[in-house]
Amino acid sequence: MNFSNILIKWYLQNKRDLPWRKTADPYQIWLSEIMLQQTRVAQGMPYFFAFTEEFPTVFDLANASEEQVLKLWQGLGYYSRARNLHKTAKYVADDLNGSFPPSYKELLNLKGVGEYTAAAIASFSYNEAVPVVDGNVFRVLSRYFDIESDIAQPTAKKEFTKLAYELMPKDNPAIFNQAIMEFGALQCVPKSPNCSVCVFNDSCLALQKNKVDSLPVKSKKVKITNRFFNYLVLEDILGNTIVQKRTAKGIWHNLYEFPLFESSEIVDFNTVAGIVKNDMFSFHTIVGIEECSEAAIIHKLSHQHLHIQFWKIKINEALEKGIDLKTLKSFPFPIVIYNFIEKL
């Protein structure tokens, strides 16, 4: 079909030089696809190199500890991806003798692997004719064909998948999948695409109807929750501190943090002093309390905005299980906490 031919020609002339495009190894392709979920290529690339250097095979990744994996993942966000990555590596190494499932349907059984990731691995590694459908694909197809289906609805996914499959050359599905994703990432971008230089500017229905900015249609809006975190950074007479592991389900599961109290709003010095002296650390001799920044740090997650304040609490004794700064930096932390530690 003309659309596919033009798209693939554009891709061959404009594609980025990305390491996971130089291999059919399902391990490396799986790694890259998990890392690129909710993540820009420029941000994910250094992590891909770090992981493939530290864990060159799925067996190496499986044999690592979860803390090693989380530490190497630190800063990439959406940490459930890293935990699922580690669990899946163990399953592939231990139960499948290191061989990834060889088909789209079987790949869906892996933890952390959804329809998009399974389609990417199946087409790039095994040349299986399965279309990938992500935000880029929704955008390209909805604009080119003027499709107003709400992409937040499950029925839209089926509609776009069917269309992509019809457009896909069945003898080379991998290049079509790469091409349409790359086109959405580089040319048919979400805001202000340069349609004047687009290879489809004489056939794109959205451009002809002046609807580029209104497609794709997405009605579902994410509800943002505001949370207020107050981290208490103890410093004893030796300069040591303490941290705790977040074992509860939710954000940052199994990462480390300083002792925390969560409030319903931004709190002042007197509130913190009262909680420190009368509640959380009443058994210590407090010699000083200091707020570490003039304003709360706002750390934005997909569904939550965290308003974070750090408070340094100096005590006049040695902590029983105190940790020095060098050891502290070896723990996996949420990046907002690690950045604070780097300034200590």
Task: Provide the fold topology.
Blueprint: H1 2-14, H2 26-35, H3 41-54, H4 58-63, H5 66-73, H6 80-95, H7 104-107, H8 115-126, H9 135-145, H10 154-167, H11 173-186, H12 205-208, E1 225-235, E2 244-245, E3 256-257, E4 260-263, H13 269-280, E5 286-291, E6 297-300, E7 304-315, H14 325-328, H15 335-342
Parallel strand pairs: 1-7
Antiparallel strand pairs: 1-4, 2-3, 5-7, 6-7
Helix pairs in contact: 1-11, 2-3, 2-8, 8-11, 9-10, 9-11
Question: What does this protein look like?
Answer:
This protein has 344 residues and is of the alpha+beta class. The chain folds into two domains: 2-214, Endonuclease III, domain 1 (Orthogonal Bundle); 225-342, Alpha-Beta Complex (Nucleoside Triphosphate Pyrophosphohydrolase). It has 15 helices and seven strands. The chain has helices at 2-14, 26-35, 41-54, 58-63, 66-73, 80-95, 104-107, 115-126, 135-145, 154-167, 173-186, 205-208, 269-280, 325-328, 335-342, and strands at 225-235, 244-245, 256-257, 260-263, 286-291, 297-300, 304-315. The strands form two sheets. Strands 1, 4, 5, 6 and 7 form a five-stranded mixed β-sheet that branches. β6 and β7 form a beta hairpin. It is elongated. The mean pLDDT is 94.
